[in-house]
Design goal:
The complex is a heterodimer of chains A (about 230) and B (about 260). Chain A is α+β, with helices and mostly antiparallel strands. Chain A is built from two helices and six strands; from the N terminus they run E-E-E-E-E-E-H-H. Chain B has two domains: about 150 residues; about 100 residues, Cd81 Antigen, Extracellular Domain, Chain: A (Orthogonal Bundle). The chains are: A alpha+beta (about 230), B mainly alpha (about 260). Chain A: This is UPK3B protein.
């Protein structure tokens, strides 16, 4: 079948790939005519995709999710009938498949077709395979390699890059200058204070000391008396 | 004589007016700093975790500086009216000390504001949110603060939900990536506090999760706080500088 599974592009999903899951579009209107088939999703390591044998039977040890990626290099999961993928696709519906969403059966060996979280960042390739009984009747192409997200440790975040903003420089400089001027002014006043300001400002009420001539009465009277 | 008397009266009047303004500004500074210290936006635990909570120290200093300015302005008014050299000298020296403290507060607020980058909050959030290690009590405060922040502001993470994907975190240790690509508080919640559509939230379908980061909600109040303390303090100090210069000049002219 000329269909290649791909990561969902419409609508844009934030979680289209996470560290252990990814989202592909459902194969709507792809397997037309295979009403009796069961459609499986095959998830394989990128390198193992070309060596995958379509006659591998799902639910056995060779395709069990729990034994992926070692020794099993490709597993089969998400089996449904064509009824789950009605054609045509209704407008406005989001038709996606989330690979890796079942966490409850990830360790359960009795559920080899579990859709468990992927164990590493990949890359992986997927394809859809239609089986009638255990006979493969149709398959799609393999997808392009899908790589998942890798998380970095938080210690790799550098927190030292903060620059000094202009505001802070302005505040510091101006305040330091003002403080220095005040100190200088105070020191200058204490040591040279009174002299330098004499010109304009003596602010207390100045009491002018006047020298009063002492005229004694009898000195003046005598000459007048002689005349 | 008359001229210098007028001069004296004008200078006295100006100084009294200057001191009245300082007193009122002191009260305003105290009120503003009390408002900030009372933690109205609940961001104090986040800042304490980053160990850059010195903008709170700057606000505390501001409270006491404000009260000191008020008290000293009254002292200044009395000293100017009585033209008493000792009172004014005490006033000048105490004002210089207060000036120095307020200067320290402004510079601290401005410097520490600069260090509150998104990367700092991101690192703290990744290391402390939902840290189930029981030895660390302060981390539960951080978790509660983040939950409240994300619920009230409808945001997720610091820069977005992909913070939880791009970096490993304490949250990731206890919550598997497949079930919890990001915390449940990033989902759009209904009235009972449950996600409206859990699958939609896990997938990241627009409308079922909060896609924007919380950094704006954090930096807004923190900026207001820091610049409120720094710039208002700066303005007060400029005015105080003028009044102090005038007082020193006045003091030098008073006769013994």
């Amino acid at each position: 079948l000329r269909y290649r599974p791909a990561l969902t592009k419409k609508p844009l999903l934030e979680g289209v790939t996470t560290a252990s899951t990814f989202v592909v579009d459902q194969p709507r209107c792809v397997f037309t005519g295979y009403d009796n088939a069961v459609i499986w999703l095959v998830v394989a390591l990128d390198k193992a995709a070309s060596t995958f044998n379509n006659s591998a039977r799902p639910g056995t040890d060779e395709t069990a999710f729990q034994r992926f990626p070692n020794p099993v290099r490709a597993y089969m999961t998400l089996n449904t009938t064509l009824g789950s993928y009605p054609c045509p696709k209704p407008e406005g519906d989001i038709t996606v498949l989330r690979v890796g969403s079942e966490t409850s059966c990830a360790q359960d060996a009795t559920r080899p077709t579990c859709n468990g979280p992927l164990p590493g960042p990949g890359p992986y390739r997927v394809k859809f395979l239609a089986l009638e009984g255990s006979v493969p009747v149709a398959e799609t192409n393999w997808s392009v390699p899908i790589t998942l997200r890798k998380a970095k440790p938080p210690s790799s975040i550098s927190t030292t890059g903060s620059r000094h903003s202009a505001d802070m420089v302005v505040i510091t400089t101006i305040l330091s200058i003002l403080f220095a001027i005040l100190l200088a002014g105070l020191v200058a006043t204490l040591f040279w204070g009174s002299d330098s300001c004499s010109g304009s400002s003596t602010f207390s009420k100045p009491e002018s000391v006047t020298v009063r001539r002492y005229n004694t009465h009898h000195v003046y009277d005598q000459p007048a008396a002689r005349l | 004589m008359a001229k210098s008397d007028d001069c004296a009266h004008i200078l006295q009047g100006l100084l009294v007016f200057g001191n009245v303004v300082i007193g009122m500004c002191g009260i305003a500074l105290t009120a503003e700093c009390i408002y900030f210290v009372s933690n109205p936006h609940g961001l104090y635990p986040l800042l304490k975790a980053t160990e850059h909570s010195d903008i709170y120290a700057a606000a505390w200093i501001g409270i006491f500086v404000g009260l000191a300015l008020f008290a000293l302005s009254i002292l200044g008014i009395i000293g100017v009216i009585r033209a008493s050299r000792t009172l004014l000298m005490v006033y000048i020296i105490l004002m210089l000390i207060t000036f120095a403290f307020e200067m320290a507060s402004c510079i601290t607020a401005a410097t520490h504001r600069d260090s509150l980058t998104p990367q700092l909050f991101l690192k703290e959030m990744l290391e402390r949110y939902q840290n189930s290690d029981p030895a660390n009590n302060s981390d539960s405060e951080v978790t509660k603060t983040w939950d409240k922040l994300m619920l009230q502001n409808h945001c997720c993470g610091v820069l977005g939900p992909s913070d939880w994907q791009e970096y490993t975190s304490a949250f990731r240790l206890t919550h598997s990536d497949a079930d919890y690509p990001w915390p449940r508080t990033c989902c759009v919640l209904d009235a009972q506090g449950l996600p409206v559509n859990l699958d939609g939230c896990k997938l990241g379908v627009p409308g079922y999760y909060n896609s924007n980061g919380c950094y704006d909600a954090i930096s807004g109040p923190v900026n207001t706080h820091a610049w409120g303390v720094a710039w208002f303090g700066f303005a007060i100090l400029c005015w105080t500088f003028c009044v102090l210069l005038g007082t020193i000049f006045y003091w030098s002219g008073i006769e013994y």
